[in-house]
Design brief:
By secondary structure, the protein is of the alpha/beta class. Helices cover 44% and strands 15% of the residues. It has 8 helices and 7 strands, in the order βαβαβαβαβαβααβα. Strands 3-2-1-4-5-6-7 form a 7-stranded parallel sheet, sandwiched between helices. Helix 3 packs parallel to helix 4.
Length: 255
């Protein structure tokens, strides 16, 4: 997306130091938006924001825990103070803790729920309150996953949170549509990121079982996100867009 259709808009993206989140932040910035780029890792956040700034984008790094309510409010307040308002909030931060159901520890479940659900819920809440105050509408987006649609070995807890985010988006339609705030989700399938490429077989495995013949790139996912938070998607809300090269249509197991 090369046009500046996001000029004058401000966006918060959590978990954006690398991978899908970084690509979303970069594409939004290059399309004219001012970005609050969050990551829990300060070095990653600063490096990512610096790269975007070097390419001509407007980007401010904010390192912190995206599940912490006080920090979430701080991000919203900083967006208003530095850029004059908040128009887009993308809850991309999430944690994946693999483990079988029969032995899954309570601490792991709590960690997954805190970031994936609590962080997303309260980013939406605090962003929506700011958008309502501005009386100019807005866009909220949650990052779901194909594991919220299809069973995946050792990812019961993670998949549960992702399915919940899609229901959260639907539920918020009732409360936020009167304020012209849309709420949608994007559900990536297998995607080539710094983390997944640590597995030497990942690309080959998912290329073999994905109908389109390859896993997604971060740009594939970012393009879907940018559409849903753009002016072009003003009448789309409570929806989920799966970006998986057709994998959920066949659901071939990687195992």
């Amino acid at each position: 997306m090369t046009t500046k259709k996001f000029t004058g808009k401000t966006a918060i993206i959590t978990g954006a130091g690398q991978g899908i989140g970084f690509e979303i932040a970069k594409q939004l910035a290059l399309a004219g938006a001012s970005i609050i780029l969050n990551d829990i890792n300060d070095a990653l956040a600063q490096k990512a924001a610096g790269m975007i700034t070097e390419e001509g984008g407007s980007c401010l790094a904010m390192a912190g825990d995206a599940s912490d309510l006080n920090f979430i409010q701080q991000m919203v307040d900083t967006a208003v103070l530095q850029f004059g308002g908040l128009d887009i909030a993308i809850a991309n931060a999430g944690i994946t803790l693999f483990g079988g159901f029969l032995t899954y520890p309570a601490a792991s479940l709590q960690s997954v729920m805190n970031l994936n659900l609590q962080g997303s819920f309260f980013l939406a809440q605090k962003a929506a309150n700011q958008m309502i105050k501005q009386q100019s509408g807005g866009r909220l987006l949650f990052m779901s996953s194909v594991t919220g649609h299809q069973a995946h070995q050792d990812l019961v807890a993670y998949g549960m949170t992702k399915a919940a985010l899609e229901m959260l988006a639907k539920g918020l339609v009732v409360e936020l549509s009167p304020y012209q705030i849309t709420v949608n989700t994007v559900a990536p399938g297998a995607t080539l990121t710094e983390r997944t490429l640590e597995d030497a077989e990942y690309k080959n495995t998912w290329s073999r079982i994905t109908p389109m013949g390859r896993p997604a790139t971060v740009a594939d996912v970012a393009h879907a996100v940018l559409f849903l938070v753009s002016p072009d998607a003003g009448h789309i809300t409570g929806q989920n867009l799966i970006v998986d090269g057709g994998w959920t249509a066949v659901s071939t197991s990687p195992y």
